[in-house]
Amino acid sequence: MTTLKTQVAIVGAGPAGLLLGALLHRAGIANIIIERQSPEYVLSRIRAGILEQVSVDLLHEAGVGSGVSDGGIVHHSIDLVFKNTRHPIEVTHLTGGKVVTAYGQTELTRDLMEQRSALGLTSIYQVIEVDLHGIDGTQPSVSYKTTDHSERQTIECDFVAGCDGFHGVARQHIPKNILQEFERVYPFGWLGVLADVPPVSPHAIVYANSERGFALCSMRSLTRSRYYVQCPMSDQVSDWSDDRFWDELKRRLDPELAEKMVTGPSIEKSIAPLRSYVAEPMRHGRLFLAGDACHIVPPTGAKGLNLAATDVKYLSQAFIDYYRTQKTLGIDEYSAKCLKRIWKAERFSWWLTSLMHRFPDTAGFGQKIQEAELEYLVKSESLSRSLAENYVGLPLDFDQ
Length: 400
Ligand code: RFL
Ligand code: PHB
Description:
The chain is of the alpha/beta class. It folds into two domains: about 1-55 and about 60-70 and about 105-180 and about 275-350, FAD/NAD(P)-binding domain (3-Layer(bba) Sandwich), CATH 3.50.50.60; about 75-105 and about 185-275 and about 360-395, D-Amino Acid Oxidase, subunit A, domain 2 (D-Amino Acid Oxidase, Chain A, domain 2, 2-Layer Sandwich), CATH 3.30.9.10. The protein is built from twelve helices and 21 strands. It has helices spanning about 15-25, 40-45, 55-60, 65-70, 90-95, 105-120, 240-250, 255-260, 305-325, 330-355, 365-380, 380-390, and strands spanning about 1-5, 10, 30-35, 50, 75, 75-80, 85-90, 100, 125, 125-135, 140-145, 155, 160, 180-195, 205-210, 215-220, 225-230, 265-280, 285, 285-290, 295. The protein has an eight-stranded mixed β-sheet, with helices on both faces. A six-stranded mixed β-sheet has the order 9-3-2-13-20-19. β10 and β11 form a beta hairpin. Bound molecules: 8-demethyl-8-dimethylamino-flavin-adenine-dinucleotide and P-hydroxybenzoic acid. P-hydroxybenzoic acid binds near residues 50, 218, 226, 300 and 302. 8-demethyl-8-dimethylamino-flavin-adenine-dinucleotide binds near residues 11 and 291.
């Protein structure tokens, strides 16, 4: 059996695990990351696209800010489409100067992976049979196998960070009588398409409510677009030819955008379920959960990756304080501090999802109520401001 030693063992090389590894390394705290998939597979998952300023600042703090500075597209407004008409919500004006940045999770992950390998830090990919040990005590460890070694390997550490996403193993190590779970599964999914065509709306992300269902226009660059349409979860990707997708997307937008839409062959197409989920607490003994490992939001509010980033901000600060001062206040308060922000983002994402999608059980009545609320929202400065301040991300000191 091979045994490695480190200070923090990180399970999962998604954005949460990689960002935590980078921030800890900069503070002189040794860490090893293990990941179930290959690097290529991790980079092939097309997911988030919108970063709050807090997340962009954290990338700079982690030393990988140049990617988002050079390749990110700063947005000052979002557009809401309903009843075939587009209404801008000027988020920067409404929040006293805040912006969001379009920058893909794939690009952000690549920046962090490249930095990690340039620094020679240990990341072990394609691990199997991951298990955690001794998290109730003072000497936890993580064991696993790699696909090319049959013998088990162990990482001895001071702390374990469970950054292994919704389907990971870390959360399962919090005893059932302690872990509380809260969940809502929505009766539809999102079909997403990535295509090398210029974004139809380069200056604003477009969220559309239509009688045919929700649609979203986003981007990865000025030549690469990311679009979504609401679809039944029973649909298969093979049910959606490119032609059918473009036709459906255009029918859910206002006539001007539909007319301007440049279509082309898809380079990725996938269907994602929509779920709200929180597991509490986020810490048990020496195990700390971060990101999708302990909370999921439906993607409508673009909060998932941003929440993962703020968890990691608080967790890295807590570990840094601990190693500098031996005081445990930061690690003791970690879960409660994160959960305050998480539940506000859960509320916002649930509200925006409820407002923008077609629900099978409310049909025509639900559509009329949504349109009435949207009309109220775009006319009322206070409601527009509430949407804007949540979209750009509530200030970090909001709950202090
Ligand atoms: P990830 O990205 O799921 O990474 C977890 C990693 O852990 C690995 N893993 C294991 N490794 C070792 N051992 C095990 N036993 C393991 N089990 C799992 C996995 O292979 C994986 O590499 O979680 P993380 O790091 O917490 O990051 C969270 C984000 O990925 C997620 O919240 C966002 O993608 C959500 N999201 C969005 N968030 C935003 O902030 N803005 C957006 O615009 C946005 N759009 C989206 C989204 C998510 C979407 N989907 C597909 C759910 C759009 C979509 C369509
Ligand atoms: C994306 O660009 O993938 C994206 C943008 C906004 C969202 C969700 C996803 O709310």
